[in-house]
Amino acid sequence: MLANEIKETLLTKNIESNVQNSVITLNNIDDYKKASVLINAINPNLELNRKDSSILISYKPHYKNSLISEVAAESINNVQRRLDKLGTKEVSVQKQGQNKILVQVPGVEDTKQIKSLLGKTAKLAFHLANTNIAKVQDIDHETTVMLKDSLGNSYPIFRKTEIGGDSLVNASVRFGHLGKPTVHFKFDSIASKRFAKITKENVGKPFAIVLDNTVLTVPTIREPILNGEGEISGNFTENKQANLQYF
């Protein structure tokens, strides 16, 4: 996803290149300085190394370690949240080494249900929030459900899934002119048409991004988004950015 974003960004300045994974080969090596500036603007945490006519891209060590820790912490939260649904007490979920999570469930002999639950693919979905709810008692449970975020805040969310996570073609973290991160996203062609209609009809209204029935963020639709691409800005944490980036 980052490779595609870099290639598209370079093309906006007529810089032609061949991008494969973390290696960018420039058609014209004289474009190196200009390309470096553009790539660093996408994410200042990228480390660039020149080799002949190619640019080798990697994350700076401190950012890579931070990202790994953030993703691991969020993964542990997701696993814990799934296991809590079973009502099992004394569940222990903790990081083991660099890339493993240790799950301990004392007293459980049949682990099939637990393995099945943890093996399910996480479900990312986009919903409209119901702004017509004044009191919890007013909720029409056939159309609306109360969902919580990781801090326990509740939101009235329409049950209808407007767009599924499988329609998300690209999601990446970018940094604005003030250095604040935003999540740039892109839907596929079918979802883009659907999203254009939704944003036209709901300017000024909240649009919820939900992962496994937990609210990640509820940004406000500021304007119609007609090309299926947009940015989410706000006070959501790096955990939430990482969640979106990896779906």
TrEMBL record:
UniProtKB keywords: Cell membrane, Membrane, Protein transport, Translocation, Transmembrane, Transmembrane helix, Transport
KW Transmembrane (keyword) present: yes
Organism from which the protein derives: Trichonephila clavata (Joro spider)
Pfam families, A to Z: SecD_1st, SecDF_P1_head
GO cellular component assignments: plasma membrane
Annotated ranges, domain Protein translocase subunit SecDF P1: 74-130
Origin superkingdom: Eukaryota
Domain SecDF P1 head subdomain as annotated: residue spans: 151-244
The protein's name in its UniProt record: Protein translocase subunit SecD
